[in-house]
Amino acid sequence: MKEFDPTILAFTCSWCGYPAATLTGVHHLSYPAGVKIVRVMCTGRVDPAFIMKAFEQGVDGVAVVGCRIDDCHYTDGNKHALKRIEALKKLLKYTGLGEDRLGYEWLTASEKGKFLNLVNTMERNIKALGPSPMPKVAEEEVLDFDKKAIDDIIADTGAHDCVECGKCTSVCPVAKFDTSFAPRVIVLRALEGVSDSLNKDRDVWSCITCEICNSMCPYKVDYSGFIQGMRSEAILLGNEPECSQGGLLQSMMRVMAHTKKQDRLGWVPPDVKIAEKGDVLYFVGCAPHLDAVFYDRDLNLTGTAIATIKILNHAGITPVVRNDEVCCGHDLNWAGDNENFEKLMERNLKMIKDAGAKTVVFACPECYRTFNMDYQDIKGDQDFEMVHLTEYLANLVDQGKLDLKGIKAGEVVTYHDPCRLGRHLGVYDEPRDILGMVGVEVKEMANTRDKAQCCGVSAWVTCGKPAKQMQIDRIAEAKRTGAQRLLTMCPKCRIHLNCAVSKEIDVDRSLVDIPMEDYIVYLARQLGL
Amino acid sequence: MQYCKECVFTPKIEDVERSPYIDVLLGTEIKEISGGFGNRHVKVVQDGKEKEFDVGTIVVATGSATFDPRKIPAYAYGMSPDIMTSMEFIDIMRHADTKGLRKPSSGDIPKVVNFVLCVGSRDAARGNPHCSLVCCTYTIGIAKEVKKLSPETDVYVHYIDLRGPYRGFEEFYSEARDMGINFVRGKVAEVMPTDGKLLVRTEDTDAGVMLSIESDIVVLAVGQEPSEGADRIAKMLHIQTDVDKFMKDVNPMLPPESRRGIYIVGCAQGPKGIRYSIDDAKTVAQEIVALMDAGQISVERTTAKVDENRCRGCGRCAEACVFKAITLVPKEGGRVASIDEYLCEGCGACNAVCCNKAMGMNNYDADQILPLIRALIQEVE
Question: Residue B160: which of B138, B181, B189, B180 has the closest Cα?
Fold first, then answer.
């Protein structure tokens, strides 16, 4: 068998990294043939998405080579690069690609030895790890417009019932800020069979799939399902979404669809009880991964996962938390990548079977929606029950098995219904009831329950100006209730709402000045956990 | 080894004033500088009258000011005419050849003269953290002159370290020691005016003894700091300032034609001796002549760019930009990032932090790098 030669992509800065690599040639020194150089001006320009995309496409290793720390020609580009690399290494560890696949070196232009040492060491380490589990990239194939597939989507979602009343457009939060966008028109274009529009239609990617239109449509057209289907077709025609974070998150999920040995439970603290097998499984989702991606935002999304386990322990349950769990695939499903979505689904269903779980508890509304609706759409009914944490707790209280007592009564909060948990799954009461049980008063926003405004971004493809305006509006609405804090259930809502106000905003800061916290973390604190 | 201000500058000043090609505007304030590379418009006010010029190249030679010793009350500057800065002492020395060296308060010949080095320099708590580079050399020079004028006067030089990284400095210093000048290592704690005398209190850290020197004259060797108004000029020309608040040269790695037609020379860039300021000026003069001689040049620069449709106006890019090249400007009810191409150095830090990838870059755009990555991975197979 031919020995495996790793492909290593080396991002080198223009001032030190690249000349050092060149100097090896000038001195007739050889480095592994699999090392491929990508020159950038500064390592601070190396977008984490570049590295993750390279891994997604099957590269075996990535090296980042820049000037010595404190010698950056742009002051501190390499310091920022180092922070990003450390965060990415965490992600590589969690996903099971292996942190040794990402290497870095800070050197001066003359230190060719350091460069050689880096690539040689990396080659050795990667040979030990083996080739990347990712399939190697193929030539991008652009398919022709498939009229029948579109017709199927129209039939499945009831889109032909559309009477063009425009009610969807009038309630659409995107249309409110982006007047060129109209949900009705996308349906209309599909009905008219306009074949050349889908390959460059940006509107299919502008929808935030919040389903406020579904709930308003007099003819019950499944608008979000229609968009989901159209996106899969759009991808086949070469119409790609403009992903926020440069597609880093989608790449991460695609990597998870293929890697074998994950190290997913690195975040679990020693003071909680979890099991490998059992009746009740807690499906964590990607919150700890997202913490690694948004390392500079101080969000502590992992806190949600820890709080969930603590609450379950408090209720006398030792939940199953599995290392072989993978991303639910929600964002790939909504970004039109059916192939990898189904891979993730198969892995998760196998994981639950292996765990022998009868009940799967979710904290993340997106995971819950994906299991409950999308997995079932494809695989039919499952032999395990799916509940949201709040539903599960409310049920335990009803059965008299649990008594929820808050340690600090009298707080006033407002609760933001995530679209997945609310409109998609109809869970409105339980989160409010539980807060009531622990002695917390919920003040409702002007738009609440099925009319709740969306956090503006879905599946990391709709981040833009309208999204920011939606987010600011939503937080201002929360502030106007006079509540002490805004609770969100979905980690994405928290990331998005936090992002909108964390830097420059165009409105008076006092209008949006309200502390935001994760519902479950807050609940755990109220329970004294 | 020293360059003397008079013999170097006096003939130059004459030349400049006589030249038909040079307009010297004295007592003039710069109001505004607009325009870009090679095409700048300068508004000045001289004696209440506004004047305007179109210029291609600008040389910033705002020089430096001396540290105000009043900021260190322990040195009692201003409480006695016998405590003076080195500049004031040099003025006295200028007239000493005819009148002899005299103590300002009484007119007597001074018996003891103390020089205090590093006043306001290398002193982050009371002055500037940086070293002013020239004080050791000029102080030794003046001290030697004092000794020559009146050999019976005791001269003390109080120093932390003697720094003179110039050819000939060591000999210059040894000569001073041989002449009988006392070098005392230690930072002077205080200067106290008492009964017409000055008491200089310090520790001789080499000998480990406390000293109280009764002195007639105390000379404070004040350090250099940016001159007044230099920060305003720097702002107008988008010149970065360094940690010591002096101006930073535009990236010295860039060829002259890429340096925006703005040159910073002499002490505007930081503490410098006369010799080095002259060297600066010579280099810059040559570069300017070459640049102006070419008349018109074209420069390809790597700079960032903004996709205004994708920009959320969050300002993460502006925060990441060390060159302060990005500002948020109003657009359609919100704000979007806007790049000053003259300030942008093209590092791409903004590209990496942009959440929605609204930031792009000439030559190193994601649309160029991602296909390159793809092609490199495919090439291996």
Answer: B189
